[in-house]
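Supplementary Methods S3. Complex input for the adenosine monophosphate-bound model.
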Amino acid sequence: MSYKTEFEAARDNPEAFWKAKSETLPWFKNPKKILTKNEHGIYNWFADGEMNTAYMALDHHVENGRAEQAALIYDSPVTNTQKTYSYRELRDEVALCAGMLKDLGVGKGDRVIIYMSMTPQAAIAMYACARLGAIHSVVFGGFSPVELAVRIDDAKPKVILSTSCGIEIQRIIEYKPLVDKAIELAQYKPDYSVIFQRPEALADLNQSYDVDWRQALTQSTPADCTPVNGSDPLYILYTSGTTGKPKGVVRENGGHAVAMKYSMQAVYNIEPGEVFWAASDVGWAVGHSYIVYAPLLHGATAVLYEGKPVFTPDAGAFWRVIADHKVKGLFTAPTAYRAIIKEDPTAEFIKQYDLSSLETIYSAGERLDPATHSWLEEKLQLPVIDNWWQTESGWPIVSNMIGVEQMAIKPGSSSVPCPGYDVQVLDETGKQLGPNTQGNIAIKLPLPPCFLSTVWGDLERFKSGYLEAYPGYYNSGDGGYIDDDGYVFIMGRIDDVINVAGHRLSTGEMEEVIGKHASIAECAVIGRNDDLKGQLPAGFVVLKNGIEASDEDISKELIALVREKIGAVAVFKEVYVVPRLPKTRSGKILRKTMRHIFNGEEYVIPSTIDDPDSLSEIEALKA
Ligand code: COA
Ligand code: AMP
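Predicted complex, serialized as structure tokens:
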């Protein structure tokens, strides 16, 4: 099968193409409706199929010869633990955890927030929700209680599941006080908060809503799989948009299962029984898809790693995991590779491990810069595959589909559109642009299975945020171009979203937090290029008249404020107090121009600028 045949089959007859892919999964009742439009005019995949994602990923394999095969390998250098769960063990733990949730009143369609460190219980909790037809929403541990409270108010969960702590290299972060603070801040109050006690920091379970996870399990009995429809939501995953309020990306059960299973083979070239490792966190889309769901839907083995690429204990950590567990495919963000390169530029650690199982290196989350690409290729002598995707898609939009046909690799491009995606470059008016011309990257509707079906509780935001800019298209928010060979080059966001260590953050949200400080008249946050983390936020603030505090004190307060309101994950550590911000005559802050200046990139002084001298002030700060 060639890439061209596969791509054209999906383009010319999407329903037949995806129906055939869906038939590789064990449905309770096969879908008859493949692609339909709902009452709001929004596309759904497999709406009338009956299924259960946990059944497809676990019970089905237990019943069909994989019961004793490894399903999940937990590797935690921060606690010196390695534990392998067979499909049978994982299914049993999931069924019991689902029984516990059921006893706490969770049923089909109810929401459960999961705010947990990288323990197997996080994956077990996700599958337990899926088993009941409940909708999980995993919140990354690096977010603050304020961010957690925003998600509680939006998702209205019956239960929050958490661990007593997380471990950041050697630092213990107690999660329970963060959960308590979030519940206090939120308007909506969940019924229960269930805590998995970790010996590194035991939490006081002294609130009326507290439940001890292990104790509750001793009283529960395993729960069966609840059938759901293909179009019923499996999870909500919040991601940064251009405003302060995160968007709850809704993922449906049916399309998700089909795309997960398909991509595991077609994009990642993994066969059932082989080991795949996505070094990410379950709090991100990569973690949902390629740590928790796709490998198991495909009958493969997943690695769940609680550690960093460096310092746990050294820059050989990834190579050690690959050798220990015979990993065939490694997938992480460029920032993690850059962290390794920084610590071990001559790749001494690579020589210490037997990496003969490793066949391919994958990268996503931000542009894979050509220098990192060639280091990996040279030191590992393996294909290095960049994928472009978003939380919204849940699986790659553009990739070299090596499970179908390995094509030439062009550093700087994530290669060609995956089957199901009609990727185009449009100008501001929606006109299609020719090859090698930069513009807005848009995807022609209908979108393939797994793509978000709406924004949780906010259909209007789904439409206005994604579908209205270019009628008939999904607006990705990324800019780039397509070359003569059809290779897609993603050049970065065209909105106020930045990418810090592969984590998507909103500069608009940071501006909202900073703008509320009593001394600040106005502010702008831009993404500054960074060799390690890709981008870092830099804040420019104008003080109100008469403020006596020193610039240094104000900066410290703002840094602490962003950490408190958004979280450590924002990595907001750079503030410049300026006399004014560059603006147009109509008062619009020239953030893009500021970004170009600050990053030493070429820029054109906008003809609408109010005072060109304001740009020299930014130039001076760069120095
Ligand atoms: N819980 C609590 N705090 C967390 C956290 C978690 N789960 N994850 C990160 N943090 C904290 C970090 O400790 C750090 O705090 P600090 O400012 O006190 O040092 C802060 O959030 C920023 O984290 P990060 O930007 O990740 O920096 P880092 O120095 O800890 O690690 C990398 C840098 C490159 C090693 C790491 O980001 C990484 O491995 N990234 C690639 C994988 C990935 O997550 N990709 C995401 C999508 S694929
Ligand atoms: P997230 O939703 O957190 O996965 O972030 C998605 C954003 O990350 C995209 O809109 C891009 O801006 C960026 N991104 C992800 N993968 C790539 C890639 N391979 N190349 C360039 N940018 C990427």
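The pocket of adenosine monophosphate (ligand 2) is lined by residues 239, 285, 364-367, 386-391, 414, 477-478, 490, 493, 499, 504 (CB under 6 Å). The two ends are 54 Å apart (CA to CA).
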